[in-house]
Amino acid sequence: MSIYDTLNDRQREAVFKTKGPVLILAGAGSGKTRVLTHRISYLIEHEGVKPWNILAITFTNKAAGEMRERVDDLIGHGAEQIWVSTFHSTCVRILRRYIDHLGYSTNFTIYDTDDSKNIIKEVCKKLQIDTKVYKERSLMSAISSAKDELISPTEYALSAMGDFSKQKIASVYQEYQAALKKNNALDFDDLIVKTVELFKTSPEVLAYYQERFLYIMVDEYQDTNTAQFELIRLLADKYRNLCVVGDDDQSIYKFRGANINNILDYEKYFPEAAVIKLEQNYRSTQTILDAANEVIQNNVERKKKVLWTDKGEGSLIHFKQLDTAYEEAEFIADDVCKRKRNRTADYKDCAVLYRTNAQARLLEERFIIEGIPYDVVGGVNFYARKEIKDILAYLKTIDNGQDDLQVRRIINIPKRGIGATTVNRVQAYAEENEMSFYDALRQADQIPGLGRSASKLEPFVTLIQSFRAKLEYYTLKQLLDDIVESTGYVKELQESDDEEAEDRIANINELISKVVAFEAAHEDATLSSFLQEVALVADIDGVESDNNKVLLMTLHSAKGLEFPIVYLAGMEDGIFPSYMSIMD
């Protein structure tokens, strides 16, 4: 019996249609990952396509990991040559090879939201922009939206003519990009934007990847933005073997820049596209599907499909009306405890979903009282904790000395008696001489007005230089151990009055464990590749599947996951959907 005999008729059609553009409209739980993996297998086994000529893009590291496992199981030898990754990981791999065409160095740093916010703060200070009027978050959001639409700082400035507020944003955008370039850094949006720019300005690089990726598959296509669409369009432009899988009914990321028209207008861009609908659901009972179908059919713009299942009616959806959010949390906690007592469910079988992170607080308090173990998805990311960011800043400085932000972060951590006045003088000297902050530190004895402070800077430079020299023969673990030891970071924590010192030391040990695991999993592990992996971690990637805990998360975080028992909290007007959605 062939592996393709296990597929239903529509799934088989999607697997066997390999030539030209294909749009697979896959309803929730209709086996789309299965279709994609079997399609990859069919291309190699029956169409003679080489594994390295296939690119499969998903939205999360978790989804990419699951697809990678299934592809490895199906194909076996040679599967590792298929690129199965997220949009951002794909772009990083390309940029690590060719970003020098755009005037960056290939050991660029990837900035997270905090890093970007710090740069925005500096830019606002420089431009004398009042952050009470123009909040950093709003400026970051405006810049991110512009990048999603592939609008450059120059184009943004032109469109802002006559609009005072937009002109302010344009000036911040311009300075922000200049600061990133100077620091040899990219933010998350830049990873896509710069790859598109690379393809448009370096035809030979685009031609190489068009020949490399003869068959391209994109999952969760309804969540792509304009920049991601353009990236895929350029890659697929020559051979047009582009298979996209998505569901317009599951488009929930407009607030992140997702452009629903990418899927609604697919046939406009690819008139010859085959459209295949997957409507049989393997995940839910008919009762749940009927409820979902009734709600979703009220959407005005959508491609019509009706999900069905052969799993039977199933149990009813339970509706409980309560007067307060506190009573709601109490009811959910009691119900979880009852199921655990009756042995009808374990903690890990349950998930509580809500619209905003603020709703988690009462649930957490109640779970603690009841002794229910839980994880909050989207809490403080491990890599966003202060001690982890400090140690990572050392690693980033060793890897990329041009990144002023990281150098300034650690110059006085642990304390070296280097004050703000000294830092400002070094910064001014660096700007006057058009050099990086770190290069200015190396010339500290030539900086006017530093006096005796110059002698405090020299040991720091020597320390970083010694780490760089050791990088040639150190493993990443040895480097990390040396940083912790030589800087006295843990020693300072042990001697401090910080109530969280013990937890923070445990976090540093966890980081060392992660480095060990990374080196074990990658034969050619480098400092750049480790920092790259860290930068691309999402909230949901930190959730361990073998933990016996109830998961608390927003509906956006829950996308693509499944649980036997789901509680939807806060189903009330103005919260679900939010007022902002109602007004749109």
Structure summary:
The protein has 584 residues and is an alpha/beta fold. It has 26 helices and 12 strands.
Structural class: alpha/beta
Number of strands: 12
Characterize the main sheet: 6 strands, parallel
Approximate shape: globular
Strand order of the largest sheet: 3-2-6-7-1-8
Number of helices: 26
**Amino- and carboxy-terminal Cα gap:** 52 Å
Quaternary structure of the protein? single chain
Compute the gyration radius: what is it? 26 Å
Query: What do the pLDDT scores average to?
Result: 90
Percent of residues in β-strands: 5-15%
Uncertain runs are: none
Query: Portion of residues in helices?
Result: 40-55%
Describe the structure.
The structure is a single chain. With 584 residues, the protein is of the alpha/beta class. Helices cover 51% and strands 8% of the residues. It has 26 helices and twelve strands. The strands form three sheets. The protein has a six-stranded parallel sheet with strand order 3-2-6-7-1-8, with helices on both faces. Strands 10-11-9-12 form a four-stranded parallel sheet, covered by helices on one side. It has a two-stranded parallel sheet with strand order 4-5. Strand 6 (215-218), helix 11 (226-236) and strand 7 form a beta-alpha-beta unit. Helix 1 (9-16) crosses helix 2 (32-45), helix 2 (32-45) crosses helix 3 and helix 22 packs antiparallel against helix 24 (501-521). The longest helix has 21 residues, at 501-521. The model has no long low-confidence stretch (mean pLDDT 90).
SSE blueprint:
Elements: H1 9-16, E1 22-26, H2 32-45, E2 54-58, H3 61-75, E3 83-86, H4 87-98, E4 109-110, H5 113-127, H6 136-148, H7 153-159, H8 164-182, E5 185-186, H9 188-201, H10 203-212, E6 215-218, H11 226-236, E7 242-246, H12 261-264, H13 266-269, E8 274-278, H14 286-296, H15 325-341, E9 350-354, H16 360-370, E10 374-376, H17 386-399, H18 404-410, H19 420-432, H20 437-441, H21 454-470, H22 476-487, H23 489-495, H24 501-521, H25 527-535, E11 550-554, E12 565-568, H26 579-583
Parallel strand pairs: 1-7, 1-8, 2-3, 2-6, 4-5, 6-7, 9-11, 9-12, 10-11
